[in-house]
Amino acid sequence: MKDLFTEVNKNVDLYVGVPDSLLKGFINEIEKSNTPHIVAANEGHAVAIAFGAMLVGKRPCVYLQNSGLGNIINPLTSLCLPSKVHPLLVIGHRHTLPQHKIMGEIDKEILDLIGYENFIFVEGDNNVK
Question: Nearest CA to 15 among 49, 61, 46, 64?
């Protein structure tokens, strides 16, 4: 996760997201850095914060678990895409447990369908501690 953080951090000056155990190492690197970091109440809130930050010239990264993708579809399609404001999404990808299976199988397709291209999937299993 340190390599991912190092790569992402080159182009980011604000992190906002919802904690996820799969992204624990990434979040730990954020917390060790001097880059501003906001823990959001939910994924839609995170996207809204990132959108506002981009309007004032910031370069945010929104991190979330792929099960939260459903919570950001409306902010992405009604706020970000029409305004041509596309914060980077770092998405922890899970797909093997029943509660993650369906979203895990269609998450990339959803982003492709709405035409959102600024994202990174972080692959992992459902048993990360």
Answer: 61
The pair of structure tokens assigned to 1 is 């996760």
Nearest to 91 by CA among 46, 129, 48: 46
**CATH superfamily for domain 2-95:** Thiamin diphosphate (ThDP)-binding fold, Pyr/PP domains (3.40.50.970)
**In the beta sheet, which residues pair with residue 119?**
89
3-state secondary structure of 39: strand
Query: Where are the chain's structural domains?
Result: 2-95
Tokens found for residue 129: 């501690």
User: Can you tell me the distance from the alpha carbon of 48 to that of 43, in angstroms, rounded to the nearest whole number?
Assistant: 9
Q: What pTM does this model have?
A: 0.92
**Token pair recorded at residue 117:** 């291209």
pLDDT tens digits, residue range 30-53? 999 999 999 999 999 999 999 999
Q: Are 73 and 105 in contact (CB under 8 A)?
A: no
d(CA 107, CA 12): 24
